[in-house]
Amino acid sequence: MTSVLLTGIASLVTNDPSHGDGKPGDIGELRDAALVIEGKRFAWVGPRRDAPPADSAVDLGGRAVIPGFVDSHSHLVFAGDRAEEFAARMTGVPYSAGGIRTTVAATRQATDEELTANVARLVAEMRRQGTTTVEIKSGYGLTVADEARGLALARAFTDETTYLGAHVVPPEYADDPASYVELVTGPMLEAAAPHAKWVDVFVERGAFDADQARAILTAGRAKGLVPRVHANQLGDGPGVQLACEVGAAAADHCTHLSDADVDALASSGVVAGLLPAVEFSTRSPYPDARRLLDAGVTVSLASDCNPGSCYSSSMPLCIALAVREMRMTPAEAIWSATAGGAASLRREDIGRIAVGFQADLAVLDAPSYLHLAYRPGVPLVAQTWVGGRPV
Ligand code: NIG
Ligand code: FE
């Protein structure tokens, strides 16, 4: 196995508690650091003066290095866009889940090649911005064949695929949602499960209620899929409590929370996924990250990239918004966008720069991770490495 030594790292965010104070959320920053990659994994991490020899060396010239972003929530399998809907929203039309049906119609019409090209384009866009792992949901097909093909196409880009047949009730079932839930828990699940790791439900007025969602998540689990939930996005609701009840990996959005919701997240260990680029793009109030962090909840940050509520694939944007608008510290935001995403996806091999972890990282054209929040909108990611190689 060949090895490469990276030196000239002014600031290295490791997320390794052994380099910090050992508290949860500590980013374990090392100054004037170096690291060695052997094959696909980190083999050594420490101060530059102690660096061992390697087959080759790269001097990063005083840049910062952070773990690659783990984007734990996206909807990339779709056709078309909804730029007009966005423009109308900016004049005061409120966001509603109804727009999802516009994308469903376009997605059903699209060829496999068109859908694959769209996913490839967006994954490439994410890579350029430092994302090394991405979760991709279905949810714009909403027929047995279209959900299965969306997941099969997404699987070529990531192992983190999520069956979201329960995104909304499609128009052909508008008068009979119970039959749609039977489809989602029956033949559609059967066709989707071989291509998915996760099952998700949009729990919201106008989408699915707690009983429908419980049935879908339970059926998914019986097929080996692990639950995650779109919870409490547009208003108060039962999503967070349901996520905690079924032991979901994540409750994402968490924009409208009661005290009981925060307590349930803290005691269950369900990761609260915050998606601030959605609030930015829908001009909605941001979730209260401070309240969650102070209660001891594990928080992840993700893009939610989709053509409706948020057509941004940028984790650096999420970090800037989390710091500026949600009172997260820059260190908390970096942790949530990397190790927090790994926790959301229940991955113990990514999200840290530590011996044995997958060698996924981003090199910043900046002396410190602080610049991600300090210089919003500036393309600071100079290189992205996945599995030990620049991509
Ligand atoms: O996570 N909330 C539901 N789904 C997406 C939005 C999808 C759309 O508007 O097309 C979300 O925000
Ligand atoms: Fe979403």
Provide a short characterization of the protein structure.
By secondary structure, this protein is α/β, with parallel strands linked by helices.
Structure description:
- This protein has helices at residues 83-90, 100-109, 112-128, 144-154, 177-185, 187-192, 210-222, 239-246, 259-268, 276-282, 289-294, 315-326, 330-337, 339-344, 371-374; strands at residues 3-13, 29-38, 41-47, 56-67, 69-71, 131-134, 136-137, 161-166, 198-203, 226-231, 250-253, 271-274, 299-301, 361-364, 381-386, 389-390.
- It is of the alpha/beta class.
- It has a seven-stranded mixed β-sheet with strand order 3-2-1-4-14-15-16, with no helix packed on it. Strands 7-8-9-10-11-12-13 form a seven-stranded parallel β-sheet. Strands 5-6 form a two-stranded parallel ribbon.
- Strand 11, helix 9 (259-268) and strand 12 (271-274) form a beta-alpha-beta unit.
- The longest helix has 17 residues, at 112-128.
- The chain starts with a strand and ends with a strand.
- The mean pLDDT is 97.
- Fe (iii) ion binds next to loops.
- Zn(2+) binds at residues 73, 75, 230, 304.
- Its cofactor is Zn(2+); Fe(3+).
Biggest sheet, strands in spatial order?
Answer: 3-2-1-4-14-15-16
Gyration radius, in Å: 21 Å
How many strands, what sense, and barrel or not for the largest sheet?
Answer: 7 strands, mixed
Mass-distribution shape: globular
Q: What percentage of amino acids are in beta strands?
A: 15-25%
Helix content: 25-40%
**Unreliable parts:** none
What integer is the average pLDDT? 97
Distance between the termini: 19 Å
Number of strands: 16
Derived from helix and strand composition plus strand pairing, the structural class reads: alpha/beta
Q: Which ions, cofactors or small ligands are bound in this entry? A: N-(iminomethyl)-L-glutamic acid, fe (iii) ion
Number of helices: 15
Domain Amidohydrolase-related: 65-391
Binding site for N-formimidoyl-L-glutamate: 140, 306, 308
EC number: 3.5.2.7
Binding site for Fe(3+): 73, 75, 230, 304
